[in-house]
Amino acid sequence: MSNRTVLTELQYEGTTPYLEFDIESELDVGFKPETLHLTLFDAKSGTIINSRNNVSVIDSCDSNGHVAMWLEAEDLAMSDPVTNRTETRRALFRWTWAAGARVGAHEIEFPIMNHLFLPVI
Q1: Angle at CA 4, nearest 5°, toward 49 and 101?
Q2: What integer best gives the mean pLDDT of the chain?
Q3: If DSSP codes are grouped into helix, strand and coil, which group holds residue 24?
Q4: Considering only CA atoms, which of 109, 43, 116 is closest in space to residue 83?
Q5: What domains can you pick out in the chain, each with its CATH number?
Q6: 32 secondary structure, DSSP code
Q7: Backbone dihedral region of 14: left (phi > 0), alpha (psi from -120 to 50 degrees) or beta?
Q8: Could you read off the pLDDT of 23-68 as tens digits, one per residue?
Q9: How far is residue 72 from each of residues 17, 27, 39, 112, measured CA to CA in Å?
Q10: Type and span of the H or E element at 110
Q11: Separation in Å, CA 104 to CA 2, 3, 25, 107, 112
Q12: Is residue 120 over pLDDT 90?
């Protein structure tokens, strides 16, 4: 299982994209970990977005290890809306199991588009 997903489809500022991935053991068996936390940050500056710094998202994981969650519109707010046409977000998920003795991680990277630069229809 890869520990990183790079989404190439542009997400628009202020939208609520859907993120998902699977947590699996070394034997490729899905499982629900004891803890699951999300840190969301701007890839260029490292700035934490929408106070999502190591927040628990364990409820987004089912018993088979499938993690699926909608982000909030505030998660796609631009860090520098005046000059940036696009920005790249990273959602880092970290989990523990075996009474905290084992730790896993998965990162999802995706680009967002500043609504100020969208063409007028």
Answers
A1: 90
A2: 91
A3: strand
A4: 116
A5: 4-117 (2.60.40.1940)
A6: -
A7: left
A8: 998 888 999 999 999 999 999 999 999 999 999 999 999 999 999 9
A9: 8, 34, 14, 13
A10: strand 102-113
A11: 11, 9, 9, 11, 26
A12: no
